[in-house]
Design brief:
The structure holds two protein chains of two kinds.
Chain A lengths: L3 E4 L2 E4 L4 E8 L5 E7 L6 E7 L2 E5 L6 E7 L2 E7 L7 E8 L9 E2 L3 E5 L1
Chain B lengths: L2 E3 L3 E5 L4 E8 L6 E6 L6 E6 L3 E5 L2 E6 L4 E6 L8 E8 L6 E3 L3 E6 L1
Parallel strand pairs in B: 2-11
Antiparallel strand pairs in B: 1-3, 3-8, 4-5, 4-9, 6-7, 7-8, 9-10, 9-11
Classes of the chains: A mainly beta, B mainly beta.
Chain lengths: ~110, ~110
């Protein structure tokens, strides 16, 4: 199984809503990532979890709150978002602590904030 | 700081060969990745280079020169389905810190 799954595929939320994005992988990867991608732009790294601990937080606003409940799951909790947060949110996973760090990406959640 | 440059757009003819260049500057270096991304889809892994030289994988090859901070992706026998964005990404000193270039949008024409 080389698949990273993400739910939901699409999400529309108001600025006062609270929602969560979910990501799951069963490849035994111990590093998981959240990226944000705007149209016609490259993915931008938001968070990295390594062995279920947050190892990188790229100065992301606190309205985005990541959570890694176990080695297979990664959540991104959203609260009080702004319209400019509308984007494709990609989850990825990889081996941790190995020479080759190929990342496998999920299909993404397309988020629209109204 | 990190800086990764690649051309924004390229057009090539079906059956031809195209080379997509990438130059990079990173704090530390642990390898160079190429990903393919079709519109509206997730990036998919194409290649990884950490040593100088050419890595060939079917119709796709990737080259790295660490001393020049330079890589290219070579696509042979182009097919229409190769129309996509090609992302160059460099791995910095952090074990999982991957920096993406802006991507090259390749259009293959008949």
């Amino acid at each position: 199984d080389t698949e990273v799954t993400q739910t939901p595929k699409h999400l529309v939320m108001g600025m006062t809503n609270k929602k969560s994005l979910k990501c799951e992988q069963h490849m035994g990867h111990r590093a998981m990532y959240w990226y944000k991608q705007k149209a016609k732009k490259p993915p931008e790294l938001m968070f990295v979890y390594s062995y279920e601990k947050l190892s990188i937080n790229e100065s992301v606003p606190s309205r985005f709150s990541p959570e890694c409940p176990n080695s297979s799951l990664l959540n991104l909790h959203l609260h009080a978002l702004q319209p400019e947060d509308s984007a494709l949110y990609l989850c990825a996973s990889s081996q941790a602590g190995r020479v080759r760090y190929e990342q496998y990406f999920g299909p993404g959640t397309r988020l629209t904030v109204t | 700081g990190q800086n990764i440059d690649q051309p924004t757009e390229m057009t090539a003819t079906e059956g031809a060969i195209v080379q997509i260049n990438c130059t990079y500057q990173t704090s530390g270096f642990n390898g160079l990745f190429w990903y393919q991304q079709h519109a509206g889809e997730a990036p998919t892994f194409l290649s990884y280079n950490v040593l100088d030289g050419l890595e060939e994988k079917g119709r796709f090859s990737s080259f790295l020169s660490r001393s020049k901070g330079y890589s290219y992706l070579l696509l042979k026998e182009l097919q229409m389905k190769d129309s996509a964005s090609y992302l160059c990404a460099a791995l910095g000193t952090g074990a999982n810190n991957l920096f993406f270039g802006t991507g090259t949008r390749l259009t293959v024409i008949p």
